[in-house]
Structure formats: structure tokens, C-alpha cells
Amino acid sequence: MHANLQDGFADSPDALKDGQRQRTIIRVLGIEVGGDEFVTMAGPCSVETESRLMATAHHVRRCGARILRGGAFKPRSSPYSFQGHGLQALRTLARARAEFGLAIVTEVMSESDVPLVAEYADMLQIGSRSMENLLLLKAAAQSGRPILLKRGMMATVAELLYAAQLILEEGNPNVILCERGIRTCETSMRNTFDAAAIALLKQISHLPVIADPSHAAGHHDLVPALARIAAAAGADGLLVEVHPEPEQAWSDGEQSLDFAEFEAMMISLDPLLALRSTVPGAPVDAGFVEVGG
Ligand code: PEP
Ligand code: MN
After folding, report:
1. Do 177 and 164 meet the contact criterion of CB atoms below 8 Å apart?
2. Domain 8-74+82-277 sits in CATH 3.20.20.70
């Protein structure tokens, strides 16, 4: 007999599919993630000026994004890089939500910032560098907000699910898993996009799985192809960096799509998403049955 794909993940029981639970649909300001709709979350790496954020929110919404991303507290690889505008950026995000009806996702880096970020954001992002910060995970879980949990850049799929298990055990059922690329021997891209992890997670876990092609690729020219790969692998949505003038961006400009690139990427996803909507749960999960949510 073949081994079960879920073998090896026994320490994350609440994150795994079982007879009762095949998929969890997470509501973020009324938007369903993990349901039939493919949900695109887009925006700048970090919130810069108000006018840039508003222009970006307007554009991504017009192209079909449902959730606005933007960093207020930025974990940077270099200590000398821009660290984010903090509270001021949270306020700017809230104004964009009011004006454009997009939900807001933004990263929380420290336990002590959780109450403040949870007051403004509709979903809390746990960044790659924080995936194993257990005290932060617990505090974020206790806020009651949905959690966008990014895979650590050196983390295995099992370790990602441990982190999810911790949030679930804390009594917060709303966890979205995010593949954002991992470090491997390959150095020609910022990270190695692990599309197989998306396919695996969609088979073993009931939690929604999204992809961040931007931090995986590290270069805007590669982002749309990775986004299409994610859609074909069965992802429930995307987290994509978009900026009105990527060359001027204060962080991650090389991997940010400009407005025209984002629009073209969204259009290029349509054939894959049409396939997804004709077969429930397609392409990876044809024939699944929704039991509970
Ligand atoms: C980000 O989303 O801007 C970010 C810092 O991502 P990651 O934690 O995946 O590096
Ligand atoms: Mn970034």
C-alpha cells in the first residue's frame, strides 16, 4: 500500500484535512479566501506617500484585486534600509480601505505592536523572518484577526504547518498559508519558488494557500509566470507587489510590477481561473466535497 501524503505531518493535526473538514473558507472583510474565488492581494512592498498608495489601490482594484497590501512595519535584510512609517502608514491604509473598499493586510513584526496593527488591519501578515517567533504567533492569533502566515525562507512545509498549528491551537481558525520562495543552492533568483509545496499543501491541508511570486522571483519580469504557475498548482490567491514607479520604490522595487505589468498579469491569469471555476476545486482537487468551513 502507498504511504499517505499526510504521513509526516502528524504534529499539525488541526491543519490537516480529515473526513469532516476538506476546506476552510476565511472571511476577510466579507471577502472569502479559500472559496471559489481566486483572491488577489496587491500593493506596494511598503506604504510610502499617501498619493502613491491611493493611486496603487485604485489601480489594483480596477484590475480585480480584493485586498490591499502594504508594509507599515518593515523587516529589512539590511538594518540601514527603510523600516516603514508605522502608525502613519496604518492610517494611510485605513483611508485607502475607506475610499476603495479593499480589505487591508499588513505585517506585524512584534508582539507589542499586535493590538495597534489589529486595530487598523483586516488581516495580520506574519513575515518569513517571523514564522518561528512563537510569542508573536500567539499574540497575533489572540487578536482574533485572520492571519496570513508566510513560509520562513528556510522552513520546511512541516515547519510551516507547525506554525499554523500553533495559531489554530490558540483558538484562531483563520490561517492562510503563503508560499513565498525558499533558499536553495540556486542563486540566480531571489528565492526558489516552491510550487510543489502549494500542490502538497492543497492536498493535505484544509487551510487556504496563496502564493507570493514577488519575493520568490526577486525580479518583476519573472513575477507573472510564477503567478500563473501558482494558479495552476491550485493556489487560492496571490500576494503581489505593485508600485506606480518601481524604480523609485523605497523597498523591493526590482520585484514590483508597474501598473501596466500588473494589469497584463491579471488578464493572463483568466484562462487558468476559468478552468478553476468550471470544476469545483480544480485544478488540483477535482471531485472534492466541501464539508463544513
Ligand atoms: C513582504 O511581504 O514585503 C515581506 C517582507 O515578505 P517576506 O516576509 O516574505 O520576506
Ligand atoms: Mn517586499
Report:
1. yes
2. yes
